[in-house]
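Internal tracking record. Fields below are filled automatically when a chain is submitted to the structure queue. Please do not edit lines marked as system-generated. If the sequence contains nonstandard residues, flag them in the REMARKS field before resubmitting.
Queue: standard
Priority: normal
Entity type: single polypeptide chain
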Amino acid sequence: MSYEPEAEVKRLADLKSFIEKKIAQLEEEIAFFKECLRLIDEQLKAKSFRRAIEVAKEVEEHEEEIYSRVLQRVLAKMYVSKNRIRIVPEGNVKIEIDKPPFSTFLLKRVLDSYARDDLEDVRRGRLTPDEALRYEVKSEGGVLKELIIYNYRNDERLRRIRSLIRWTFEKMLESR
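SYSTEM-GENERATED OUTPUT FOLLOWS
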């Protein structure tokens, strides 16, 4: 086996040239990826800021009183935001969640009916699942603390819900 220094030098020079080209190529890729990250960061900042504004609008709520002319008193506070209604009975108003008309009429007949209609619209592709009406009943010892209705979607439903809550609460308080 003979030692050929020229062949080895040529091979080392080729290897060095290959490595330099590879480093240059990788540096170009790194620069490209850095530019992609910069663009993604800009988009995230824009979308995150916009999303924060949208969330703030959704959370903004105004307070209304549900007043009974029949009983001449405030029955509940209603907090309305873009996609949510929160109903909180006044401190002296006790609404038992398992008793009619709260359970049978307001929940089962009215809100469940809206929810079924919305689920049908979801099935038909008119709504996304997270746009469908749903509600949550918060209670303590069987007494309503808060009724939260998500995705009421329009003013007509809001007016009807407000009216039916007033009617329901009046009937429950009259029957005592």
